[in-house]
Structure formats: structure tokens, C-alpha cells
């Protein structure tokens, strides 16, 4: 049995939120590169050593920027997938949650880079709640489409 999918008129919001992640990734790359240059950590090292980071605030900032970027990419695939799936039935909600997730990731990175791990918490919570809600909405959408 074939399933024909008609996208809701508001699906453009979902696409905008999804596309925003491309630019958030560019932001992360620029931020990490800037911190790498300032810290003097040379390629191919992914991070400054713990000993160096404890003594050098620039090395610590680089490690934090690098970790924020890694955390973004770890969550990117589930976020995009959840946005695209949830948006099939709930495009405005999925677009809004996806936009919130993207925006919170910028502030998460800024906080983490400037203030260390403890400064990422507020926007980490916002990001996590937004992504969890997207995942649950995507799961509900999948169940609706599979069984109804």
C-alpha cells in the first residue's frame, strides 16, 4: 500500500527551522576556529590537554567551544529528523520548536565558550526540553500515520 503525503501549507516553517541549523553549524565552526587560533592549539589536536586548559583560559575556552560544537552535531540529526516528521502533522509547532532549538544552541555555545560548563546549563535545558518535545511530537505523528 502506498502512502501519499500532502504537506501542510505551513510546512515552510519546518523547512526554515531546518535550514537555520545549517547556519548554526557555520556559527559553531567560526566560533571554534576563532578559539583555536586564540589558544594556539594546533591541528590535528581536537582539544587542549587538561593540564594546559586548567592553566590557560584561552585553551579552556577553545575546549568549551569545541565541546559545544560537538554537542550540537551529536543532536543535529535527531533534531532535523524530529522537525521533519513532526511537521507533517504539526508544522507550526515543529517549526517553532525547531527554531527555539536552533536559537538556544547559539546561546548555549556562547555561554559555554565564555563561562565554561556551568554557563551552558540554562540554554542546555531549553534546548533539551525543545528537542524532547519535538521527538515526542514526531513519535506521536508516526504512530498516527502508521495506525490511523
Topology diagram in text:
Elements: H1 11-39, H2 50-55, H3 57-86, H4 91-115, H5 121-147
Helix pairs in contact: 1-3, 1-4, 3-4, 3-5, 4-5
How would you explain this protein's 3D organization?
The protein has helices at residues 11-39, 50-55, 57-86, 91-115, 121-147. Helix content is 79%, strand content 0%. The longest helix has 30 residues, at 57-86. The protein has one domain (11-147): Up-down Bundle (Four Helix Bundle (Hemerythrin (Met), subunit A)). It contains 5 helices and no strands. The two termini are 14 Å apart. Helix 1 packs antiparallel against helix 3.
State the end-to-end CA separation: 14 Å
The CATH topology label is Four Helix Bundle (Hemerythrin (Met), subunit A)
Radius of gyration: 18 Å
Number of helical regions = 5
Order of helices and strands: HHHHH
Helix content: over 70%
- Beta content: under 5%
Which structural class fits the helix and strand makeup? mainly alpha
**What is the assembly state of the chains in this entry?**
single chain
Can I get a quick summary?
By secondary structure, this protein is mainly α.
Amino acid at each position: 500500500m502506498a502512502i501519499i503525503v500532502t504537506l501542510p501549507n505551513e510546512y515552510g516553517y519546518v523547512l526554515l527551522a531546518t535550514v537555520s541549523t545549517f547556519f548554526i553549524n557555520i556559527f559553531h565552526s567560526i566560533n571554534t576556529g576563532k578559539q583555536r587560533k586564540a589558544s594556539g592549539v594546533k591541528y590535528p589536536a581536537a582539544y587542549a590537554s587538561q593540564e594546559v586548559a586548567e592553566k590557560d583560559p584561552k585553551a579552556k575556552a577553545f575546549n568549551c567551544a569545541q565541546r559545544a560544537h560537538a554537542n550540537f552535531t551529536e543532536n543535529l540529526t535527531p533534531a532535523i529528523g524530529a522537525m521533519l516528521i513532526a511537521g507533517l502533522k504539526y508544522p507550526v509547532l515543529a517549526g517553532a520548536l525547531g527554531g527555539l532549538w536552533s536559537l538556544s544552541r547559539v546561546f548555549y555555545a556562547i555561554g559555554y565558550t565564555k563561562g565554561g560548563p556551568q554557563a551552558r546549563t540554562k540554554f542546555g535545558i531549553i534546548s533539551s526540553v525543545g528537542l524532547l518535545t519535538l521527538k515526542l511530537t514526531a513519535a506521536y505523528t508516526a504512530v498516527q500515520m502508521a495506525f490511523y
